[in-house]
Amino acid sequence: MWSLQKIANTIHEWLNTTFNSTIATTIEMVIAGVAVITLFALLGLVLVLMERRIAAWMQIRLGPNRVGPQGLLQSMADTIKLLVKEGLTPNGADKFLFNLAPFIAMIVAMLLMAPIAFAKDFQLWDLNIGVLYISSVSSIMVISILMAGWSSNNKYSLMGAMRSGAQIVSYELSAGLAILTIIVPIGSLQFSEIVQSQVNGWWIFKGHIPAIIAFVIFMIAVTAETNRAPFDLAEAESELTAGFHTEYSGMKFALFFLSEYVNVFIVCAVGATLFLGGWMPFHIGHWESFNHMMDYIPSSVWFFGKTFALIFLIMWFRWTFPRLRIDQLLNLEWKYLLPISMFNLLLMTALAILGWYF
Amino acid sequence: MVEALGSTQEGNLIINVGPQHPATHGVLHLVITLNGETIVHVEPHLGYIHRSIEKMCESLTYRQFIYVTSRMDYLSSHINNHACALTVEKGMQIEVPARAQVIRILMDELTRIASHELWWGAMAMDLGAFTPFFHAFRERESINDIMEETCGARLTMNYIVPGGVMQDIHPNFQNRVKAFLKMYKSKIHEYDEMVTGNIIFQNRMKNIGVLSAEDAISYGCTGPTARGSGVSSDIRKIYPYEIYNQLDFDEVLEHGGDSFSRYMVRIREMQESIKIIEQLIDHIPEGDFQAKTKAVLKLPKGEFYTRVETARGELGVYIVSEGGTTPYRIKFRSPGFSNLSVLNHIARGSKLGDLVAMMGTLDLVIPDIDR
């Protein structure tokens, strides 16, 4: 299997021989930062266009198809429009918090990219508590939403923020428990080890029924965590006009918008890594020749293929389901998902102790 | 007023929904008192789209005033015109030719389906599902195309004149209506799959905004809003006009009184309209499409009242004539106004998210309420 590690090593060695180690590390950090920002922008452009085309396809219309070939440059045009638009700050708003909130959303989305393994040996930071890092950093997102809702000095925004607070805090539990269910048989929180543990089959196949239940719960919970329909109560445009970002315009709005999409990408990447093997090709036990053939497909194709399949699933939810009500939303979490995922975790633990997985 | 809204109570929040708001489908202004997410009081404020249509009609002749009424309930403009024409015909005792009667009913029912289609799409959109809106418009477009071909307009048809219809139907009319019926029947299952059968949708609609039959009567609700509470109020059955008494169709009644019942009434009403169209489309009688009338219409001195069933309920047209060429006074009894008045009654105590679901099932068209 070919790897990107050689290129990274070459750059690393060249930097260390040319400069002293402090400068070399600084340059490497800058390179990583630029890469993350580029990826952030790129993902935003791609996912917005993807969503619009998928929505159009489901709604028997064409979608953006005028700017560039097949409308591919539509997101670029949108970005330029948002950049030149005036970013208003309402008179009664808390100006500091109001302007800070979108940046927190963006920073959270960027920080979350660090431990994701995009391809074989292609990872910014393979820290040993990767999964824990993801779930703890992603919970900062709610602070940005609460901040935006509170500082806007708008009743709709405030209600959207309060809904979002209740929603994200509750659904984080289920998402966490679903992740834990898979972590139990792996025994490691490190992304590289999680991927490596699936060398003879993905966890959704190896983990029997508990893994499938965990996967379903995970998908529901992360849809709620990223404020996507049918759980988009924080925005709920037919009730709260635009919810927590009612007062935002121009690029400040775009940052919320982009970070939502990048968050969707991140949670889908985590889902793909935990349940569908991340960049690991489709392997079946000890079928050496089959596994070998699968290895010829580059690992980045596997990773992005799986991630975008999950993103498609989440977009599919959005364009087909009606929205839940706030009490139904919380009932679903506290009365159904949480007990089921707790029980599921116990079941998986029993399976792991007995060694009843492949 | 602020005290009446309950704002003096600790923890209550007054929030303005509208006049510009995605949920109100027009310039309706609701002042809502909230306790957390729970609705304490809803007060509709009207007047943002008042065009004094009733006063305007007093200076227009009996031929002209019909077309102003297209702008009241613009989604069932044809049925509004029909009501006005019926009143004038009643006053002048004009006999409408059989062909015109059948054409009018066909158009009425097509309008009713188009209106319910739009309602269905908007209803789903209120609940956060966007896709049904486009699916509803697919069917509605083909009705609009039929209208465009025969009437020359898609929304405000202005097709009815006292004594008949303005011109004969287009030669393509029957074929296109049949094509529409075929298309509609092949797509109707999507409605159930996408919205009606959806568990989230059912949870959002069932036992929400319960309106008892007694309340429906005392608030003067008509149309699907009343029939959802089990109150028989179909004017086509109770006071048949044109040839509705010769047609085979059922009055749709649901007894739940909740949002889901009102929803089901409209869904089933579309099927009944299809039934009516199917009975008539192959049996449009030959003959004149318009009765011979005088150039200048003058209603005899007196008072005239007719009612018809629009897509939203009972529309009454009341004309007081002094014997001249223009009405002395016109009053419309629009269904939307009475239906809106129950909003505070049914919404109190439920969540803010439910309010949009209830307003959706009341099927409000604001220009109809405000006129």
User: Number of domains in the coordinates of chain A?
Assistant: 1
Q: Tell me the quaternary state.
A: heterodimer
User: Could you give the count of β-strands of chain A?
Assistant: 2
The CATH homologous superfamily of the largest domain in chain B is named Cytochrome-c3 Hydrogenase, chain B
Number of strands of chain B: 8
Low-confidence stretches of chain B: none
Molecular shape of chain A: globular
- Total number of helical segments of chain B? 15
Main sheet properties of chain B: 3 strands, antiparallel
Based on the coordinates given, report the CATH architecture of the largest domain in chain B: Orthogonal Bundle
Which whole number gives the mean pLDDT of chain A?
84
Helix- and strand-based class of chain A? mainly alpha
Work out the helix count of chain A: 15
Please report which band the strand proportion of chain A falls in: under 5%, 5-15%, 15-25%, 25-35%, 35-45% or over 45%.
Answer: under 5%
Query: What general form of chain B does the structure show?
Result: globular
Low-confidence parts of chain A, pLDDT < 50 over ≥5 residues? none
The strand line-up of the biggest sheet of chain B is: 1-2-3
Return the CATH class of the largest domain in chain B. Mainly Alpha
Hey, which two chains have the biggest interface? Answer: A-B, 28 and 31 residues
